[in-house]
Design a protein that fits this description.
Rossmann fold; single chain; about 625 residues; about 15% strand; six-stranded mixed β-sheet; alpha/beta; elongated; 3 domains
Amino acid sequence: MKNLKSKTHAKPRYTKQTIKRVFSYIGRYPFLLTLVVIGILLSAASSIVGTVLLEPAINKFIGPLIGAENPDLSGLITLLLVMGSAYFVGVIGAFMYSRIMVVISTKTMTAIRNELFEKMEKLPIKYFDTHTHGDLMSRYTNDTDTLREMISNGLPQLITSVLTIVGVFIAMVIMSPILTVILVCMLFLMIFIVAKLGSKSGKYFIKQQDSLGKVNGYIEEYIAGQKVVKVFCHEDKVKNNFDEINDTLCVNSTKAHTIANILMPILGNISYLNYAITAIVGGVLTIYGFMSIGAIGSFLVFTRTFSNPIMQLSQQFNAFLVALAGAERIFDMIDQEPEKDEGYVTLVNAVIDDKGNISESDKPTGKWAWKHPHGDGTLTYTELKGDVRFVDATFGYEPDKIVLKNISLYAEPGQKIAFVGSTGAGKTTITNLINRFYDIPDGKIRYDGININKIKKPDLRRSLAMVLQDTHLFSGTVKDNIRYGKLDATDEQIYEAAKVANAHQFISRLPDGYDTYLSADGANLSQGQRQLIAIARAAVANPPVLILDEATSSIDTRTEALIEKGMDALMKGKTVFVIAHRLSTVRNSDAIMVLEHGEIIERGSHEELIKLKGKYYQLYTGMFELS
């Protein structure tokens, strides 16, 4: 079970920084943004111009024409055409900025997802060991979708509303400073309410996104484990656990949206109250000659025009909070420390002459060497042989929980080293350290005499191949999955690797042979067949060091016997580390290490350990079972 960590924050941690970073992505498209601004200005200006023209329409045309016997409508029609043209320009502007913002938001999300995925590929294994897959997926889906919605709809609506509010306010001040004072008082009341309610709802939107990530993580985990759930009839237990997690999401979501959603009714009622007060005061001013009928008509329309953007902003308020919460989660992952690699020794194609002198080649030679630059500017080359040595290595996944204690061992080129012991003894941890999935704080690990901390991680891992107990096949053909071990492998090399792993026969019987498409992690194959493909993948890589972590655990004894010869051919001349619970698979190892509580308590060949009659003897004879 992974050590899952979840951080819930009372409020957005870096609101200003998050907004600034979002705009840094949007700002990559200055030309499109310029068109958006023009469209927004046209849309906002058309609304204001149309309302301003209402005053002369009433005062100069509609009012005087009331009761006239032969009214001349030409002037009114001309004015109405001007108003219609203004509104039409506004429609064009709104369409333009809405369409362009869709393009900008899509491009922005593409850039963010690319950066997120690129960063994910650079994160250390520890990060994935401490976060559920569903929570990570939630950042690609839910969080990016809320951010896209804010950019494409919320942001232009925000700008339009602000420009409309400013333009309308200026027009209202010119028309009637007295009525504008009433409006300002109501505006401050609206701002006060939005600030108060917004501060309370913000923390729940953060909790909502975190809870959503937990729900997705739980669902993803149990979709993958449905067979186990059904075998042990744990449907009710799983459902109850899901209900608890889902209820937490429900509570946080309800609190967030309850507070945010009451903004609209409150602000709506305040706007109606403001409209009524304005109409009353404006009527009085009109009666006493301080305003014209057209002016009060325009002002009342401006009052509604002024209130609508504020109400729209209140509607968008919760969407902004959700988007910012999602953006923080996205940037939190992007800002994670990448896997550190201070190595400088690289793996190069080598040419080795009869005297053992090594030179570098820019073409594949079938031989490899470590290119080791030194502080004095010189270079040395060391042939890649696969000599691995641990010297007093101590390691713990957590500083206060030591897993390996002063481990010392060596594996010379061509040797087969086996690790046996109870679950949790530290067998897999040793192989994780050879790959530098984790680095040791104390002791050393040397590879061909070079401290592996000096070797660049990609080069180190290219010199290794692993066959894990939990195989993973990617969506693609069988051929593609085997080629994953060596991307430039020819078809002939793939066929040969499959034969070595004894996978060729069953692959040939598949509907399309090597071109059979695999999906859902190879669900249409048996576990043993999937593992054979994983072994073939390691065979095509043909590295000098091979790590087999329970590689044959899912293969029946008959199949295991069939591939034994092939595995021997695969392991010939290679340094091989084998982790096995099935002790029959390690009998022919050059050395067997028995681990217990992170320490090597016995080491030797099968015969030597049997004669010793210690823990290995007990394990092999069944006097003590692995657990």
